[in-house]
Design goal:
Oligomer: single chain
Number of domains: 3
Order of helices and strands: HHEEHHHHHHHHHHHHHHHHHHHHH
Strand order of the largest sheet: 1-2
Helix content: 55-70%
Radius of gyration: 22 Å
Distance between the termini: 26 Å
Length: 478
């Protein structure tokens, strides 16, 4: 519970990005369903460029899963949001000097509708992104211990994943990536526990549903879902729960097909074909997919623009971990699923002309495979964690990753866009200028970089409380 709370507070500290096209597109659909009982985002499309235009109406061009999940959340919160006390509180917060200093001087200011929209975004992001992201960390911790990593090292690896990789930047925003990572990894985790005799086979029903939800939240996740699907079949063999596992994935798929049929009169997910601002790229190959390009293969890994290992070099230990994992000759099926998750996503997006992901911290499209790469990093720690050189290497890479990820996450009101080296050309200059992403520290009256201090203290306190009993327990373990 303490690990969950530490992660949850850490993820909710920074506010969702204001005026972000990707978030707005998803929230627009949620609001349209609740407020207008419509799938069209006509009343809202002006706040995003991520839309599809079909027969004179505007629709979100995103996979609808996150928006559907947001409907009950927003519907339940809407009466509270519209109440007089909350309206007065929102107005007061929006007028604080620390918050006002983050606004664009040339912008249109803060109206009541904008504040309401932003708070709705915060609430939906909390339940659809922050909470699943925190749960993901808890499940990752347990998975690592089941692979043989001691609890102290498991905690180190999880905290590194949560706060020093690209996952951190997307754990507070209404994007699909962390939700999909949660769905995929949880499905894998449940099947793994069943395989180890630690869970009832009935849990595969939830696993099947989560795989279906992942696919309708981010279509390419079908690649990773396929690997987990095959793994679960291997685990279940001829179990009577096999039918339930397969059937549980049908409702999300049926919902997606009904959604597309209602709009485009086809059950297929064709929204991107009607993305008015991106027709040129989506017409390249098959919906922007061709073959792995050298530029993308480099750019997604070591490039300064969107390189995974440039922004979070600690993940390089995951690459080494896969080699160690294979040589250990243990958990071979889990090794194969994890490797498939990493390689399939990497090669898929290296084949896309849109591999860079627009506004992002690192390669955002690769975020759903990070928990699987982190498992391999855990195997590296399990093998070499007792050695001094390994502790030094891990610490150095983790610190470099933390500094890079936090700089890019907090530096500026938007994620870095089109610049060769976002860290040095965009993020660090914004931090030095005091242009820090909106966060709860600003609500307390703190400005600039000092507004991040409460988050640092919260994480430090939570980490200390987590480590103290674990260190005592590990010392007692022979």
């Amino acid at each position: 519970m303490l690990l969950f709370l530490t992660l949850l507070v850490g993820f909710t500290f920074i506010f969702p990005r204001w005026a972000d096209w990707s978030q707005n597109s998803r929230l627009n659909l949620t609001l349209a369903i609740v407020d207008h009982h419509s799938l069209s985002i006509d009343p809202y499309f002006g706040n995003t460029g991520d839309y599809a235009k079909f027969e004179g109406h505007y629709y979100s061009d995103k996979a609808p899963g996150p928006s559907f999940l947001g409907v009950p959340v927003y519907a339940a919160f809407r009466p509270i949001l519209r109440s007089a006390p909350i309206q007065a509180l929102l107005l007061k917060v929006s007028q604080t000097s620390a918050f006002q200093n983050t606004l664009n001087e040339e912008g249109s200011g803060l109206g009541t509708e904008k504040v309401e929209y932003f708070v709705a975004l915060m609430v939906v992001a909390f339940f659809i992104t922050c909470v699943p992201s925190a749960l993901l960390g808890v499940f990752l911790f347990d998975f690592l211990t089941l692979l043989g990593l001691n609890r102290s090292w498991s905690l180190v690896v999880v905290l590194t994943f949560a706060f020093a990789t690209n996952a951190f930047a997307f754990s507070s925003v209404f994007f699909s990536h962390q939700l999909v990572a949660f769905c995929l990894f949880t499905a894998f985790y449940l099947a793994f526990r069943i395989h180890r005799g630690l869970g009832h086979p009935a849990w595969v029903i939830l696993s099947g549903f989560l795989l279906g939800l992942a696919v309708i939240s981010e279509y390419p996740s079908a690649l990773i879902a396929l690997g987990i699907f095959v793994y679960t079949l291997y685990v279940l063999k001829k179990s009577r729960w096999l039918v339930g596992f397969v059937a549980a994935g049908v409702p999300p798929g049926a919902l997606m097909m009904a959604y597309n049929w209602a709009i485009f009169r086809t059950p297929l997910p064709v929204g991107y074909e009607y993305s008015e601002l991106y027709t040129d790229v989506h017409s390249t190959g098959f919906l922007s997919i061709t073959y792995p390009h050298p530029e993308a293969l480099w750019g997604l890994t070591f490039g300064s623009f969107r390189g995974l290992f440039f922004s979070a070099p600690v993940l390089l230990l995951g690459v080494a971990g896969f080699i160690v994992w294979w040589k250990k000759k243990q958990f071979r099926a889990e090794w194969l699923v994890s490797l498939w998750a990493v390689l399939s996503f990497y090669l898929f997006y290296a084949s896309s002309v849109m591999w860079n992901g627009g506004y992002a911290v690192g390669p955002r499209y690769l975020v759903p495979m990070l928990p699987f790469l982190t498992l391999a990093a855990g195997i590296f720690a399990e093998q070499f964690g007792a050695k001094t050189w390994a502790k030094i290497v891990y610490a150095l890479l983790a610190v470099l990753s933390l500094l890079n990820i936090w700089a890019q996450t907090f530096g500026g009101q938007t994620f870095p866009d089109w610049t060769l080296n976002p860290l040095f050309n965009y993020s660090i200059p914004n931090l030095l200028a005091g242009n820090v992403a909106r966060n709860w520290g600003m609500v307390l009256g703190l400005r600039g970089i000092t507004s991040i201090l409460p988050l640092f203290l919260i994480i430090a306190l939570g980490t200390g409380l987590l480590f103290y009993p674990l260190r005592k327990r590990d010392r007692r373990t022979p």
